[in-house]
């Protein structure tokens, strides 16, 4: 079951999107939840609510969609964020919170259904991609989606995972080819590789990742910020 949340202060827009999603439900098993404010949505998640895909209105009173998205990322929410708005003025800001797409209202049924097709295809790929990590004690199959970053320290590599760390006696040459073959991973420093899906924000000299990890950006990898932006907008922005 895929849980989809709509957060919009307009009951009319919530109903419009709900009707479109219900039509898509004939192709997938989904559950739809709607909230009229960001505070309600955050409370839902904090109380154990599930959300794999979130449609967020940007222009809302008080707690706008961009601020809401930043709060979600600080809560380690790693689902798909889709912004819905009547203005394209916020497109540049949306990449800072790893938005999957940016839709101008009113988005058509065909555009939203195509977007969902792409997301479900992406989910399938991300759920099956993994890497074998060998330590002295055992060998673990770790899904790519669980890797936040990889850090080299001498003859050791530390895999910073979603819920823990895994340190092994190895160097980058043993794992870098497999990681870099996946478009989510990028090298930002001679000692660090990050999974761009886990980026919370980009600073001048570092990435702030989930689990409050700070990963430096080397001058030798200065193009990594642009690569991150391309990653965020790898799916064509859908316009009216």
Distance between the termini: 29 Å
Roughly what percent helix?
A: 25-40%
Low-confidence stretches: 235-240
Radius of gyration: 19 Å
Strand content: 25-35%
Number of DSSP helical runs: 7
Helix-strand sequence: EHEHEHEHEHEEEEEHEEEEEH
Largest sheet: spatial strand order:
2-1-3-4-5
Major beta sheet summary: 5 strands, parallel
Query: What structural class do the secondary elements suggest?
Result: alpha/beta
Global shape: globular
Q: Which helices and strands appear, and what pairs or packs with what?
A:
Blueprint: E1 2-7, H1 11-24, E2 30-35, H2 38-46, E3 53-57, H3 65-74, E4 80-85, H4 91-94, E5 101-104, H5 109-128, E6 130-134, E7 139-143, E8 147-153, E9 156-161, E10 165-169, H6 172-180, E11 185-189, E12 192-195, E13 199-202, E14 206-209, E15 213-216, H7 224-232
Parallel strand pairs: 1-2, 1-3, 3-4, 4-5
Antiparallel strand pairs: 6-7, 8-9, 8-12, 9-10, 11-12, 13-14, 14-15
Notes on the structure:
The protein is an alpha/beta fold and 240 residues long. It has 7 helices and 15 strands. The strands form 4 sheets. The chain has a 5-stranded parallel sheet, with helices on both faces. A 5-stranded antiparallel sheet has the order 10-9-8-12-11, sandwiched between helices. Helix 1 links the parallel strand 1 and strand 2. The longest helix has 20 residues.
Give a short overview.
The protein has helices at residues 11-24, 38-46, 65-74, 91-94, 109-128, 172-180, 224-232; strands at residues 2-7, 30-35, 53-57, 80-85, 101-104, 130-134, 139-143, 147-153, 156-161, 165-169, 185-189, 192-195, 199-202, 206-209, 213-216.
